[in-house]
Amino acid sequence: MPEPAVSAVERSAISKVCWRLTPFIGLMFFINFLDRTAVSFAGPNGMTKDLGLNAAQFGFAAGIFFLGYILLEVPSNLALHKFGARRWLARIMVTWGIVALLFTWVSSVEGLYFLRFLLGVAEAGFFPGAILYLSLWVPARHRNKVLALFYVAQPLTIVIGAPFASALIGADGLMGLAGWRVMFFGVAVPAIVVGVIAWFYLVDKPADAKWLTAAERSWLTSELAKEEKAKGGSHNILATGALLNGRVWLLSFVYFGLIYGLYALAFFLPTIISGFEAQFGSKFSVMQKGFITAIPYLPAAFALVLWSRQAAKTGVKPWHVGLPALIGAVSIPVALYMNSPAATVAVITVTACAIFSALPNFWAIPARFLSGAGAAAGIALINTVGNVAGFAAPFITGWVKDATGSFQAAMLLVGGFMLLSAVLTLVVARQGESLGDRAAAPARSA
Q: CA 6, CA 4: separation in Å to the nearest integer?
């Protein structure tokens, strides 16, 4: 059956949202992910030595961020729903930028733990808030496309951020600081600046967007209202109901496995690359390590976009999340059994492509059956459970590495959690449900 024609108003409205809001929210996400993972660049480039950290301590420092994040995530997202995204997202960003700046002068293991925890508290609610915000601007049939454009910022954070962080580390002695301290300073300042800009740039809802025409505002407002009405009855889940909803919890555990893989890779890939010298006798400069760290993430950005486009043609199905999760489960432990740096990075690239292909399709799901405060609470809960993996992955990976002397066993465990995600998507499919609460109508190009 041919797709209904897309009206000129629909096409122009979605196009404006895609290019006016999504790149800016993506920039905020870029800075967000860079600030939370900056410790991964600092670790093997002087911080571990200067602060006397072993692998388990480094992993705990990386992971404790998520304990602070988890504590305030649901309340933060409910506050965003109450006070509006413009003010709340801007407030979050300026706050985390100030905390990130303090890493420049950290002088002890305990101080590092405290600042990482505080950074998590400061960032709490940003990611689910951004997902919720974008979901409130486009109808479901276009949401997959918008979220893919937003999510591409995450792999690009490493593509651009790894060489950028390496360049800052190379400025050793600037302002009388060690290179890794200069790096922390350099990645924190943009958060404060962009956070202030966000206060004036963002708009809370389509009805207030002066950059839309009257016809575009009317169409978006009408379409979004129809969707909210269609979610009535059992799908109009209140905040308390969302926290007890079985589907929300199932999606939470799917997300747990994906995030376990994402952060094991994000926090330890620079350390694994630094270990190539001892493992293979290969020597790389700080800048070369930065570029090698970036290699897996550029193909991942392309894979994310292409896989999301494929999902948009049919609506998100279980295999759009489950198949990438399965590929990641197999590839990530295999990578560390390769016999050269090139082969190792090539297989890690497959893992990165798999993880990032699954994530935006996953996040097209919850807003299809959650609305209002229920959407705020449900999306925050899913992200909270996922961020338990954000704490567990670096800490357990570091602990297992210390216990075994290598990363192989730790990566087998990562593969196991990603396999859990793949299996849970099959459980949903066997129940006769698509992950999208019955597959959405095919998304149409704007």
A: 6
